[in-house]
Amino acid sequence: MGCSWFSRRGGGPSEVDDGGIASIQNVKIYKYKEIRQATDDFNPHNKIGEGGFGSVYKGHLKDGKIAAIKVLSAESRQGVKEFLTEINVISEIQHENLVKLYGCCVEGNHRILIYNYLENNSLDKTLLAGGYTRSGIQFDWRTRAKICIGVAKGLAFLHEEVRPHIIHRDIKASNILLDRDLSPKISDFGLARLMPPNMTHVSTRVAGTIGYLAPEYAVRGQLTRKADIYSFGVLLMEIVSARSNKNTRLPTEYQYLLERAWELYERNELVDLVDAGLNGVFDAEEACRYLKIGLLCTQDSPKLRPTMSTVVKLLTGEKDIDTRKITRPGLISDFMDLKVRGPVVETKPDDEVNRNNYTNPSSYNASSSSGTRDNSNVYSSGASSAAAVSSFSSTI
Ligand SMILES: Nc1ncnc2c1ncn2[C@@H]1O[C@H](COP(=O)(O)OP(=O)(O)OP(=O)(O)O)[C@@H](O)[C@H]1O
Ligand SMILES: [Mg+2]
């Protein structure tokens, strides 16, 4: 076999001075040779995607498992020890709504993650890419409700049961994978920990992700679990409406899902946002409840967003929504090309976010139809938090 299990208790390999591998308890270490064989030497035919961290290949491992093999890009090369420490943390986190990490490969400069392969791809490539017509998957209302609840449970687990808790930082449709039974699995949790500190905040990767970013995180680098909850809210509305948070093919006033949802909510017409592809076969009360939960999660003030365990209860109907409490969503959708670099401040606990430093929403929601944005338009003069070196530019 090209791989081995290392155990602190087991003796053998764990006693060898191997640059950090000895400290690893539960991670399966794969040989680069096996990964090459599994992917037919990283044959482009086996490539199933490419994200901000690197390329993903489908591979057949020697033990018969099918894997998704994520080859991390050069920038994400940590030292062996640091890398394995983080991998060890990630591999211990297991839940039915989280993608399972089989192991990793850390030979030479290579940093590769080996995950359970999910047969039914990601939500962005199925439901949001045309649903049944394109993917052959029937996303009926019950399936969607199951997906929403599963994702909420996975995130609640990361936020509230894992110690220390994990903020995902990149909840979005491409990070929700579907297994054979269309049960959702959140992928890429803990990945931000594998990036060097200067890369972990919003970077050029944000281009495809911006619609999911909580304003306080995108603009000010304030990272709390509430930023994930905001992203979850956007995702929830995408699942119910089967449309992406931004769709430039629609007339201007319909392009931004959150804006549209708020408008319809105010007019008491939220049901219009539900995917027409369901052909009216859905529980309208439940679908509107889901959209309202999406609005609750995306409220401008992080403090007003519910925790993920509350979201689970709201989705399952165990708890009622107090609709009087929904306030306008925070929007940064008009930053078309946002680049922020600088250390992230993980603000803990959530309630301690310094709201005096919080910029008036209207200033980061300013019109941006031309030219380069001056940072002073974005930051309040008192801004002192994370995104120390930042630049905003608009390409529209
Ligand atoms: N475990 C997996 N099983 C099946 N397909 C996967 C798996 N992991 C990733 N993929 C596929 O690879 C694609 C790219 O994934 P990747 O995580 O690299 O990029 P992304 O999710 O689009 O962006 P990001 O880097 O921000 O997460 C996914 O959209 C999905 O189609
Ligand atoms: Mg991903």
TrEMBL record:
Superkingdom in the source lineage: Eukaryota
Chain ranges of the Protein kinase domain: 42-321
Region span, Disordered: 346-380
PROSITE patterns with a match to the protein in the record: PROTEIN_KINASE_ATP, PROTEIN_KINASE_DOM, PROTEIN_KINASE_ST
SMART domains in the cross-refs: S_TKc
Alphabetically ordered keywords of this record: ATP-binding, Kinase, Nucleotide-binding, Serine/threonine-protein kinase, Transferase
Family: Belongs to the protein kinase superfamily.
Protein name: Protein kinase domain-containing protein
Organism this protein belongs to: Brassica campestris
Lineage: Eukaryota, Viridiplantae, Streptophyta, Embryophyta, Tracheophyta
